[in-house]
Write a structure and sequence with these properties.
heterodimer, A: 339 residues, alpha+beta, Immunoglobulin-like, 3 domains, 5-stranded mixed sheet, 3-stranded mixed sheet, 12 strands, 41% helix, 17% strand, B: 650 residues, mainly alpha, two-stranded antiparallel sheet, 19 helices, 2% strand, globular
């Protein structure tokens, strides 16, 4: 009997409410309708207007089909278009005149007016520039031409026009933070750019949206929009070289890191680790996730990641290095101090 | 053929039957050049391909039923979604529409006895079969293409994809393109030159207009894809740099070339569906199509305009705004001829006396999904909105509504519609309706939530997704919709397979159809029509006087052309009789030529260039053999210049 409770009205109401919530209010952290910048506000508005018009057109056309169906049952129904010129007139009106008006309005608003508002910003209208470089399968983020290098997390000051210049180190990726702006492709040989201008503080999820190989699914990142003071403090810290470890395990871990193959792929500013293949780890402990927003940045997950990255992200460029567990613990202790 | 046939005429019909008799058994099928048999082979092969693509789709949906799925490994997922796209477009829809429907129906509909180039027709089938085997050999051995059906470089370059996977794609599509090119040439020449006397262009069924439009588009679009694939293989195999940015090439060259082909391709896929809809609607509304000339013009305009919109696939690559505005405008304009056709169908249904039999139901479903897919397509021409939903599930929803809901539904409706013509039997009506409603419902549940999940930011082509982003429930619903759709499709196949042997006899014309094919027997004899019909309107079957005159001519033994494989050719515009062409009969060369071509491409793939040269030599020999046969044939049956069928109008 318990199974039946699903069919009770209350269960249905709950289900319907959940659907509406998920579907429309943007509970998702990656919705394009979350209205956190002027651009997404305008695009969201455009969407609702288009949806409204589409609903009218759809039900209008379906109504004609329903009438055609009912006509068989209700003989006395007056039928429009019995005469050929009337039928042809309907095709001209609904097939040409009405769409033409609707399309001209849509074109003028979205492709002429709004496209010019949302198009990539002129460099002199923005107050700072961030370089984002796509890699298989993570994001390199550079501030001030490389004075601070981080990965998979982008911090921006809120209510500030930030020019994001996107390029790629390998294949085509696409940079997309749905809550803040549309996407822009990262293409070899091209420097594309896009505006990020968050109207309120928050953490926004972004994700690669051009298929880029095996781990395209695990190539996400977070954008932290912060008040200017907080952002400045963060950036000042990122620009510093890595601190020297103090704990015994961390000191051993640093030596292991430099002696194992870690240093050949990763950068830790201020040490001899100057690799460029993997993400910079100079301030890894300030980041909230690992492996391009795939797992949380906790000592346990970090240890698991170093032990067997291929189990978490099959095909990833980080190989299983076969580092003994004790060394992994030390390396984790070291990286955990890189605040 | 209700009237009694004079004994003299019966002798002619017997002669026709003897002359056109097809060889029995496997050898008969291997060497056939009969457009109906080739159409049937196309039908079953592309149906098998549809099943493969469908299984791939179900694997994808099962993987995505919940977050962090483990049904497929990332590598397997990439191969499966790539093969799903390649299969559905190149190995299912194009061969099913042009190869199966076009081949089987066009000659019947225009009153011809075969396609214009019967042996080339057979060759295109065997090449198509070869390319399908080529591609599926890749999947079976775990080397299937894995960079998406759009195959963007540099992901598809040797550097990032060093195996043979992409070479299967490059060579396979060039190979496959030969078949489609030949089919489209054949369709164009057949429809322009083999129409029955009196079937001037303004009396040609709209179905033929749609297939002409699709074939012309195919003919112009395919060379671009083949060229792009040649560049790709030169880059991969010989170190050329067409697409290598670091050496002065440009990866966007691939994208431009691919979509110059790829967007017309979308219309090539849907135009035959338009044609099927315009064939089914008049029959089931007992009314001529509203605004025939405007609908014909719209079909052609769609194919033409389809060549000018490709950059709307590239709104996020960072071209100048002015460029984008042009392509957005062009993309919006294409709405007009589509809307004209849409409202011509709706108005015809509204002002006719519709009968909602199974084929008609599929057309209603088609109209509903064409409206939905069309509307979501319009939203994608709004560039700012497109930069948000581009490469998200919103786009997946849009083009599946158009390609599955709008292009495949008429194919399924057409299967039910012409099933009695092919088999002489009726399908099961109630099961047919059930199969429609299951598929219709499943399609809705499968694709409508994808719009929402796309708006919630879910990108395409991800083998999995995390639990915390809010996509789980919608993906679950989509997968259930996928299973319902699959059940509906399985029911279609079961219904038709069972009815093939056990259905009620249907007679020649169970629907009161409007086009010529309903006037001949079901299934049609190898020569299609004993008497070459004459035509005086696009609804030839409803011109009962014309058909009765055909019967009287048959009774008198007029217009039979009983000597050799003969069919009249006619002038391109007015369809006046031009001359009597002598058609080839069965030939072993088409499958042999296709086999040697298969060898060429297989060895190219394996980099055995000397063996390639060997196979090219074999190919040359087979072509020579073909030519010898053709020369002997020409000597035996010289072309008859003077019409002997009598004037079209007595």
């Amino acid at each position: 009997m318990r199974k039946r409770s699903w069919w009770r009205p209350r269960a249905w109401r709950f289900g319907a409410a959940a659907l509406v919530c998920i579907g429309l209010t943007g509970c998702s952290r990656q919705s394009i309708l979350s209205d956190h910048s002027k651009v997404t506000h305008d695009i969201g508005l455009l969407w609702w207007w288009m949806l409204g018009a589409a609903v009218i057109v759809f039900f209008g056309a379906v109504l004609l089909l329903v009438v055609a169906f009912l006509k068989r049952r209700v003989p006395g129904l007056p039928i429009l278009g019995e005469r050929e010129p009337v039928a042809q007139g309907m095709v001209l009106v609904f097939g040409i005149a009405v769409p033409l008006v609707a399309l001209v309005v849509l074109f003028a608003f979205s492709d002429v007016y709004l496209e010019n508002v949302t198009a990539a910003p002129a460099a002199d209208t923005t107050s700072m520039t961030i370089d984002v470089i796509g890699h298989q399968w993570w994001w390199e983020v550079r501030y001030d031409g490389g004075r601070a290098i981080t990965a998979n997390e982008i911090h921006i000051p809120v209510r500030t026009r930030v020019n994001v210049v996107v390029t790629t180190a390998d294949v085509i990726h696409s940079f997309w933070v749905p809550a803040l702006n549309g996407k822009i492709d990262m293409i070899p040989g091209r420097r594309n750019h896009e505006l990020l201008d968050a109207s309120q503080p928050g953490v926004y999820r972004g994700q690669c949206s051009q298929y880029c190989g095996l781990q395209h699914a695990h190539m996400a990142f977070l954008v932290y929009a912060q008040p200017m003071a907080k952002f400045r403090a963060w950036l000042a810290n990122q620009e510093r070289p890595a601190i020297n470890p103090t704990g015994a395990a961390a000191i051993r871990g640093k030596a292991d890191f430099m002696n194992d193959q870690c240093a050949s792929c990763h950068l830790i500013a201020g040490t001899q680790a100057q690799g460029y293949i993997g993400p910079a780890l100079t301030h890894l402990a300030t980041r909230s996730t690992l492996a391009s927003n795939t797992i949380p940045n906790t000592p346990t997950w970090l240890a698991r990641w170093i032990h067997d990255p291929q189990a978490i992200k099959p095909g990833d460029r980080m190989p299983d290095l076969g580092i003994p567990p004790r060394q992994i613990r030390d390396i984790v202790a070291y990286l955990d101090e890189l605040k | 053929m209700a009237t009694t046939i004079e004994p003299a005429a019966q002798r002619y019909v017997d002669e026709l039957a003897a002359v056109w008799a097809e060889r029995k058994g496997v050898l008969g099928w291997l060497t056939t050049v009969d457009h109906k048999r080739i159409g049937i082979m196309y039908f079953f092969t592309s149906l098998a391909m549809f099943a493969c693509g469908g299984v791939e789709a179900m694997l994808i949906r099962t993987q995505l039923i919940g977050p962090n799925g483990h049904v497929l490994s990332p590598a397997a997922y990439d191969e499966v979604f790539t093969m799903h796209g390649i299969t559905m477009i190149f190995l299912f829809v194009i061969p099913m529409t042009t190869g199966a429907f076009g081949n089987y129906l066009l000659p019947l509909m225009i009153g011809a006895r075969d396609m214009a180039f019967p042996r080339m027709n057979a060759l295109s089938y065997w090449i198509y079969l070869g390319s399908g085997i080529f591609m599926y050999f890749a999947l079976a051995t775990g080397h299937a293409p894995n960079a998406g059906w759009f195959d963007y470089v540099p992901l598809a370059s040797k550097q990032y994809d060093p195996g043979n996977n992409i070479d299967f794609y490059g060579y396979g599509l060039i190979f496959n393109g030969i078949a489609s090119t030949m089919t489209s040439i054949n369709i164009i020449v057949t429809v322009f030159k083999l129409r029955a006397p009196g079937m001037s262009l303004n009396r040609m069924p709209l179905f033929c207009y749609a297939f002409i439009a699709a074939s012309v588009a195919l003919l112009f679009a395919l060379p671009v894809l083949s060229l792009a694939c040649v560049f790709l293989e030169l880059d991969r195999e010989l170190g050329f740099q067409f697409y290598v940015a670091a050496k002065g090439g440009d990866p966007l060259l691939w994208q431009n070339l691919f979509w110059i082909f790829g967007h017309p391709e979308v219309y090539i896929i849907i135009l035959p569906a338009f044609g099927i809809a315009t064939a089914i609607i008049p029959t089931f509304t007992e009314r001529k199509m509203v605004f025939f000339p405007l609908v014909a013009l719209s079909e052609i305009l769609v194919a033409f305009l389809g060549f000018g919109v490709w950059v709307h696939h590239m709104f996020t690559v960072g071209f100048a705004t002015a460029t984008y505005i042009y392509y957005a405008a062009a993309s919006l304009i294409i709405t007009i001829p589509s809307a004209v056709q849409l409202f011509a169908w709706i108005t015809t249904i509204l002002t006719g006396t519709p009968r909602f039999k199974t084929p008609m139901l599929w057309i209603i479903g088609f109209i509903v999904y064409f409206i939905l897919g069309g509307l979501s397509g319009i939203t994608l021409a709004a560039i700012p909105f497109d930069t948000q939903v581009h490469d998200s599930y919103y786009v997946v929803a849009h083009f599946h509504l158009v390609i599955f809901g709008a292009a495949v539904f008429p194919i399924l409706g057409g299967m039910y519609f012409w099933f009695p013509k092919l088999t002489g039997r009726m399908y099961h009506e109630r099961l047919g309706k059930l199969s429609f409603w299951l598929t219709f419902l499943g399609t809705f549940v499968l694709f409508m939530p994808m719009h929402i999940v796309g708006i919630l930011g879910m990108p395409r082509r991800n083998y999995t997704y995390p639990a915390h982003v809010g996509w789980t429930l919608l993906n679950f619903i989509e997968t259930i919709g996928g299973y319902i759709t699959a059940a509906g499709l399985v029911l279609v196949v079961l219904n038709l397979a069972h009815s093939m042997r056990h259905g009620e006899p249907s007679g020649n014309d169970p629907w009161g159809g409007d086009t010529l094919e309903w006037s001949t027997t079901s299934p049609p004899p190898p020569y299609n029509y004993p008497v070459i019909p004459t035509v005086s309107s696009p609804y030839a079957m409803w011109d009962t006087e014309d058909r009765e005159r055909d019967n009287r001519r048959l009774a008198r033994g007029e217009g039979l052309l009983p000597v050799g494989h003969r069919t009249p050719t006619s002038t391109a515009q007015d369809a006046d009789i031009d001359e009597i062409a002598s058609m080839p009969s069965s030939s072993p060369w088409p499958p042999l030529v296709a086999l040697s071509l298969f060898g060429v491409f297989a060895m190219l793939l394996l980099d055995h260039y000397w063996i390639v040269v060997g196979f090219l030599a074999v190919l040359l020999l087979t072509v020579l053999g073909w030519h010898q046969g053709a020369a002997a044939h020409a000597r035996a049956h010289e072309v008859v210049p003077a019409p002997e069928t009598g004037t079209p109008h007595e």
